[in-house]
């Protein structure tokens, strides 16, 4: 047997034996396994599943073993993913540490930092948040003003961040700070610090969806040990850009229809809410909109597939990936607008009786989706990037 | 998906690129138009295309073809689209060659396929009867009389109809005008008594014709495939043509886009190149995104054909709808961004726009294929 097939067989057996039955169902939002010091487990199986997967390093399958990862090759990691999907296993851990910070630490951090921070990420023990945007630095992120002053054996951090996802629940923050006020991009550094440090305060912001996933985060004379600087002083922008790429990749996958309201297809919902005639959605205009949406979604999925195959074969320019964030988020927003049209007034309820959980979920997700084309670089910024870097149009 | 080209395919792509750029550039189409060339295409270039193996790309080696397959054909058509090369590729190779290969008897194949591959036989499919693609609306009738049939009716928008040596005619042998079954395909020599062919001059300067059949008598030996069973063959052949046209449109769209981006970098107003204006940058970047998706759906459709996947109809409609619509957007935007120069005959963008509209209308535009996709997907 080929080694990879042997790996597949062992993996299949291990997953069968270790994945709890309730972890093979679609995940309600309240069971999202964020981990962290103050983790709550709406379903205790989530914790069992996380611990078992983390013990093999399979929450971070391709990270090196010495930092707690699974040490798998790309091919093995793909097999693991396939075998997990085969039994509909949930992802054991949702974590900005895994998706964003970890890859950046592997590339830019020193040995001591890797050993300190990567294993707790793998085990879901420390929950991270990202301190990037500021009230005065959104699309123009490099204009950030939160400053860190060199005080000999520590940095003194003062300033304010905004749109910090789950800052009120996070244990640590990776944070962009200004260490040189004379330069813009070359005056930014990348700091890590504990959210329980005196002087840190996070206040949740209520969004149009009614949820509060984002915070305003204030830093008042926060003392950060100097060993928590990642990479060189004033070279944080390089790390920041790389991290943003990981963030965009994460967000652009949304266009493929994850989340609430995606379990039932658009056409099935349309037949339910509008009725059908001769097997067709009763409204011809709506039917056309659904067809267009599905065809655009299919074309986008094929483009993700093509880019992955091209990368694997070492051909192509990879230019297509520059459109993923833009196209995926705009596609997702159109999808929710269409869902709302399909549900009619049943998609416009806020809470309480008269609406199903799913209907209310669509409404809230529709509101949430509006942020997709703002966070992680607005659609307009993405288009600027394509125009400049891919098409070579001048400033 | 067929992403990694074989050595043979790479060679074919390079050959096609060079051939169309050097031998059949846009200037060639202008010459055909301005000299009112009676054939409507360059017979010399077509012969060279046949010698390069392009005419026999879908034909097996047994019948003198090169059998490079759909992906190979896509590569050629994309390059032909870039230079607006007029040729009988769609009529003779995609449509009629495929129909004969799929449904022809051994005698018919032997009679027709080697001649197509050699570039010696031009054929046309007489299908449409109205201004919109509607492959099952066939009022043209074929009535059996002993061992022959008598065909009467009118066909329109027959690609290469006035230069074709032989026609494939879709006629009704049973049922009502809009029935899916009851359609039969006939091989008809263009010079048969009762066949009247009138060339129509289209906006893209390419060939089409109106053809009427007035009690045209053909032998039962000329039935292609089974009596009343033409729809199955037509469905497959039309999907091949739709995918081929999508590949051609991909080349067209890419060419217009490249020319437009070049123009944005060169044209100056207010003391700067107009490509520095964000209003134009964003529209250009948005088109880039749409074109990337176009490339994916075309490659997927060609792969579906090549692998004989069972979702060829969906892939064909996905590709044809997207390419028809994107070609409209990109040629319109291309023209607008060229300003007044885009309105002149001297600039090529207008030629691309005209071809884009005709190719979009050929065998179903975006509206037709969204409707078809929804039906295929069961809603």
From TrEMBL, chain A:
Residues 129-222 form the Acyl-CoA oxidase/dehydrogenase middle domain. Residues 6-125 form the Acyl-CoA dehydrogenase/oxidase N-terminal domain. GO terms for molecular function: flavin adenine dinucleotide binding; oxidoreductase activity, acting on the CH-CH group of donors. It holds the Pfam family Acyl-CoA_dh_M. Keywords: FAD, Flavoprotein, Oxidoreductase. Residues 234-391 form the Acyl-CoA dehydrogenase/oxidase C-terminal domain. Gene3D superfamilies: Acyl-CoA dehydrogenase/oxidase, N-terminal domain, Butyryl-CoA Dehydrogenase, subunit A, domain 2, Butyryl-CoA Dehydrogenase, subunit A, domain 3. The keyword Oxidoreductase applies. Transmembrane segments: none annotated. InterPro entries: Acyl-CoA_Oxase/DH_mid-dom, Acyl-CoA_Oxase/DH_mid-dom_sf, AcylCo_DH-like_C, AcylCo_DH/oxidase_C, AcylCoA_DH/ox_N, AcylCoA_DH/ox_N_sf, AcylCoA_DH/oxidase_NM_dom_sf, Mycobact_Acyl-CoA_DH. One of its GO terms (cellular component) is plasma membrane. Its cofactor is FAD. It comes from the Bacteria. PANTHER family: ACYL-COA DEHYDROGENASE, ACYL-COA DEHYDROGENASE FADE29. Belongs to the acyl-CoA dehydrogenase family. This is Acyl-CoA dehydrogenase.
From TrEMBL, chain B:
Residues 6-120 form the Acyl-CoA dehydrogenase/oxidase N-terminal domain. Residues 229-372 form the Acyl-CoA dehydrogenase/oxidase C-terminal domain. Residues 134-216 form the Acyl-CoA oxidase/dehydrogenase middle domain. GO terms for molecular function: acyl-CoA dehydrogenase activity; flavin adenine dinucleotide binding. InterPro entries: Acyl-CoA_Oxase/DH_mid-dom, Acyl-CoA_Oxase/DH_mid-dom_sf, AcylCo_DH-like_C, AcylCo_DH/oxidase_C, AcylCoA_DH/ox_N, AcylCoA_DH/ox_N_sf, AcylCoA_DH/oxidase_NM_dom_sf. Keywords: FAD, Flavoprotein, Oxidoreductase. This is Acyl-CoA dehydrogenase. Its cofactor is FAD. Gene3D superfamilies: Acyl-CoA dehydrogenase/oxidase, N-terminal domain, Butyryl-CoA Dehydrogenase, subunit A, domain 2, Butyryl-CoA Dehydrogenase, subunit A, domain 3. CDD domains: ACAD. The keyword DNA damage does not apply. It comes from the Bacteria.
């Amino acid at each position: 047997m080929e080694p990879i097939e042997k790996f597949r067989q062992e993996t299949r057996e291990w997953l069968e034996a270790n994945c709890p039955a309730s972890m093979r169902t679609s995940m309600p939002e309240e069971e999202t396994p964020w981990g962290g010091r103050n983790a709550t487990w709406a379903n205790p199986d989530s914790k069992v599943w996380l611990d078992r997967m983390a013990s093999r390093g399979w929450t971070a399958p391709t990270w090196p073993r010495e930092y707690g990862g699974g040490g798998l090759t790309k091919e093995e990691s793909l097999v693991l993913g396939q075998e997990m999907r085969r039994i509909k296993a949930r992802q054991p851990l949702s974590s900005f540490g895994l998706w964003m910070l970890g890859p950046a630490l592997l590339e830019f951090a020193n040995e001591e930092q890797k050993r300190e921070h990567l294993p707790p990420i793998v085990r879901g023990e420390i929950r991270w948040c990202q301190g990037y945007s500021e009230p005065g630095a959104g699309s123009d992120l490099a204009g950030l003003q939160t400053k860190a002053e060199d005080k000999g054996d520590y940095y003194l951090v003062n300033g304010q961040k905004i749109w910090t996802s789950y800052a009120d629940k996070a244990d640590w923050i990776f944070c962009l700070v200004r260490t040189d006020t004379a330069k813009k991009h070359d005056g930014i550094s990348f700091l890590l610090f504990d959210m329980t440090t005196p002087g840190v305060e996070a206040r949740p912001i209520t969004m149009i969806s009614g949820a509060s996933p984002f915070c305003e985060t204030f830093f008042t004379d926060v003392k950060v040990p100097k060993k928590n600087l990642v990479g060189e002083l004033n070279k944080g922008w390089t790390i920041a850009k790389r991290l943003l790429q990981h963030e965009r990749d994460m967000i652009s996958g949304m266009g493929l229809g994850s989340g609430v309201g995606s379990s039932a297809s658009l056409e099935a919902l349309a037949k339910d809410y509008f009725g059908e005639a001769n097997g067709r959605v009763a409204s011809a205009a709506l039917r056309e909109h659904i067809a267009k949406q599905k065809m655009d979604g299919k074309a986008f999925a094929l483009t993700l597939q093509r880019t992955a195959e091209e990368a694997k074969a070492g051909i192509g320019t990879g230019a297509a990936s520059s459109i993923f964030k833009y196209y995926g988020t705009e596609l997702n927003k159109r999808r929710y607008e269409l869902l709302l049209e399909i549900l009619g007034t049943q998609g416009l309820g806020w809470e309480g009786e008269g609406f199903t959980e799913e209907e209310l979920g669509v409404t809230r997700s529709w509101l949430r989706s509006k942020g997709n084309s703002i966070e992680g670089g607005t659609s307009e910024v993405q288009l600027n990037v394509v125009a400049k870097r891919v098409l070579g149009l001048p400033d | 998906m067929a992403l990694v080209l074989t050595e043979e395919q790479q060679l074919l792509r390079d050959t096609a690129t060079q051939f169309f750029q050097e031998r059949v550039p846009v200037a060639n189409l202008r010459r055909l138009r301005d000299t009112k060339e009676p054939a409507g295409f360059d017979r010399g270039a077509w012969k060279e295309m046949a010698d390069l193996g392009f005419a026999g790309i879908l034909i097996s080696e047994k019948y003198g073809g090169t059998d490079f397959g759909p992906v190979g054909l896509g590569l050629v058509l994309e390059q032909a689209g870039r230079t607006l090369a007029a040729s009988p590729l769609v009529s003779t190779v995609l449509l009629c060659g495929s129909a004969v290969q799929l449904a022809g008897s051994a005698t018919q194949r032997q009679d027709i396929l080697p001649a197509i591959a050699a570039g010696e036989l031009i054929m046309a499919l007489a299908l449409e009867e109205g201004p919109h693609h509607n492959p099952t609306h066939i009022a043209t009738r074929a009535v059996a009389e002993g061992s022959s049939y008598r065909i009467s009716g009118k066909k329109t928008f027959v690609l290469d109809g006035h230069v074709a040596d032989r026609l494939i005619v879709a006629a009704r042998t049973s049922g009502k005008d809009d029935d899916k079954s009851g359609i039969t395909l006939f091989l008809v020599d263009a010079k048969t008594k009762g066949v009247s062919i009138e060339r129509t001059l289209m906006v893209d300067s390419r060939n089409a014709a109106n053809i009427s059949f007035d009690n045209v008598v053909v032998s039962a030996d000329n039935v292609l495939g089974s009596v009343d069973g033409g729809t199955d063959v037509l469905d497959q052949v039309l999907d091949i043509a739709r995918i081929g046209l999508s590949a051609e449109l991909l080349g067209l769209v890419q060419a217009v886009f490249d020319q437009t981006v070049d123009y944005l970098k060169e044209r100056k107003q207010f003391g700067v190149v107009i490509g520095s204006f964000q209003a134009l940058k964003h529209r250009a970047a948005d088109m880039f995104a749409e074109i990337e998706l176009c490339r994916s759906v075309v490659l997927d459709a060609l792969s579906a054909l090549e692998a004989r996947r069972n979702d060829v109809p969906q892939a064909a409609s996905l590709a044809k709808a997207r390419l028809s619509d994107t070609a409209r957007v990109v040629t319109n935007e291309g023209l607008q961004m060229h300003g007044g120069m885009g309105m002149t005959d001297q600039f090529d963008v207008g030629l691309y726009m005209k071809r884009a509209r005709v190719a979009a209308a050929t065998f179903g535009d975006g509206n037709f294929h969204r409707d078809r996709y929804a039906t295929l997907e069961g809603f």
